[in-house]
Amino acid sequence: MKFIETRGNESGRSEKVSFSEAILNPSASFGGLYVPENLPTLDLKRLKDLSYKDLAFEVLKSFQIDIKDEVLKEALSLYDKFDDPLTPVPVVNVGSGLFISELYHGPTRAFKDMALQPFGKVLSSLAVERNENYIILAATSGDTGPATLETFKNRENIQVGCLYPDGGTSDVQRLQMVTEDGSNLKVIGIDGSFDDAQTSLKNLLKSENFKAKLGEKNIKLSAANSVNFGRIIFQTIYHIYSYLQLVSRKEIVLGEEIYLTVPSGNFGNALGGFYAKMMGLPIYKILISSNENNILTDLINTGKYSLVGRHVVNTKSPAMDILKSSNVERVLFTLFGAERTKELMEQLESKNEYSLSAEELVTLRANFSASYSNDDECFEAIESYFERGYLMDPHTATVVKAHEELRERDLKNIAYSTAEWTKFSPSIIEALNIETKNAGKIVSDRDALDEIARITGTEIPTQIDELFEKRVVHTTVVPVEDLEKEILEFL
Ligand SMILES: *Cc1c(COP(=O)(O)O)cnc(C)c1O
User: Fold this and answer.
1) Atom 15, ligand 1: which residue's CA is nearest?
2) Would you tell me which CATH number, out of the four given (3.40.50.1100, 3.55.30.10, 3.30.300.30, 3.90.700.10), belongs to the domain 84-108+231-431?
3) d(CA 290, CA 301)
4) Contact 198 CB / ligand 1 (< 6 Å)
5) Rounded to whole angstroms, what are the CA distances from 78 to 22, 49, 82, 151, 180?
6) Domains of the chain by residue range
């Protein structure tokens, strides 16, 4: 299968590219993104009883991508690093028709591992096969960074530059990055928000000077954030798997419609669900939950996407503190075509906003509904579900209000848990009103982890526990302007 571009084709560029081209060089004509020319149709009956890895293999094959079977199999074998290799994605029934599909059982305890673990292997294999060297630049709001470093650490022909907003992540997230040792890794803190980090990365990807300097060193530029279709393809799989889990547990019959609920930021996870729906997975609607950076709620409720006068608000769910939600573009392309997508994206760049027509909004709302929770509402959700015996992190907590308020029909709902509570333990202390030794003071991640583990009888996974003993190897924090220089020095 070939890949085409969301904003149409610029003269001088290939009209269609292979999967490997699209993932090695993910930026398309006019600053657009690559998308598959068409989507495969799922044969759910055939996929029904497969293990996660076998299901994943079948779904990947149905896209007819130009990656060798051995490489795909080796990439998928990385799910063996998850807590339970046979069930990397447990789906937990928490009552009231709500099922939580836990995507965080990988090495960095957030859902980014679902895609990045296999993606790292695929990309490195391509680089070796072509005898080329790549630098991966990743901007992170806290979870992509650790997962990117973890997957590329010491992999051949790949170097990683990882940018995070200094002060915008939890202690655990920061430690996951700054203690990750590998001669091919460079971690840089940015003075600014995640959007600043993402914008400076986008500018760097466009910089001719930077590209020329890389050329001299014979290094090519790639990216591992969720604009890369190589991540999205792996993010269609768990939606299919979770649905089939409900079928095999006789919670639903094959073909029965359900809701999906996705805590969203850059919209990669939700896009994977949307593609699964387009491929024939019986999803009635996808419910999008956000925090107070509720630009997606506005888009889906009013048809207007506007950055005018808006600033990123820091919340207790920092991985969703995003206003420029990149993957919305791919949905616009699927629903409204390249010409319209280009027009809307150009309006966003020049006027900082765009509006869908009334008719377009109806089409969008046939696929999505949306709501957002503020921090207090998230904390209430964490507390009320904890009382029923289920502990969730602040990102996952945003799905509760969506589940309670957005369903027009009495259908089962699969909501995604995108991170383990261990990445945000001081927030859990606050949400559960746990009295600590240092009551009134800000609790450290270390104390919070121990306290919650003690109270709930949960074990802290070793991946988190050992972070506090590891040596910090990355100490660079710079203003955005210095980014290019820092990266070139590293290379
Ligand atoms: C990345 C992330 C999200 C947002 O996912 P998108 O695919 O960017 O919408 C939500 N929650 C957590 C914990 C994350 O790490």
Assistant:
1) 143
2) 3.40.50.1100
3) 13
4) no
5) 22, 21, 8, 9, 19
6) 84-108+231-431
Q: Transcribe 358-382 into DSSP letters.
A: HHHHHHHHHHEEEEE--HHHHHHHH
**Mutation test of ligand 1: which of 100, 141, 143 has the most ligand atoms closer than 8 Å to its C-beta?**
143
**Residue pointed to by tokens 């997962």:** 147
> How would you write the pLDDT of the chain (491 residues) with one tens digit per residue?
999 999 999 999 999 999 999 999 988 999 999 999 999 999 999 999 999 999 999 999 999 999 999 999 999 999 999 999 999 999 999 999 999 999 999 999 999 999 999 999 999 999 999 999 999 988 887 888 999 999 999 999 999 999 998 988 888 999 999 999 999 999 999 998 887 888 888 888 788 899 899 999 999 988 888 889 999 999 999 999 999 999 999 999 999 999 999 999 999 999 999 999 999 999 999 999 999 999 999 999 999 999 999 998 989 998 898 899 999 999 999 999 999 999 999 999 999 999 999 999 999 999 999 999 999 999 999 999 999 999 999 999 999 999 999 999 999 999 999 999 999 999 999 999 887 655 555 678 999 999 999 988 889 999 999 999 999 999 999 999 999 999 999 98
Q: Where are the beta strands (DSSP E) in 335-463?
A: 353-355, 368-372, 413-417
Type of residue at 248: S
- The alpha carbon of 369 is separated from its chain's Cα centroid by a whole number of angstroms, namely 19
In sequence order, what are the residues at sequence separation of 6 or more whose Cβ sits closer than 8 angstroms to the Cβ of residue 276? 42, 236, 239, 240, 243, 283
Quote the ligand 1 centre to 265 CA distance (angstroms).
Answer: 5
Q: How far is the CA of 415 from the centre of ligand 1 (A)?
A: 13
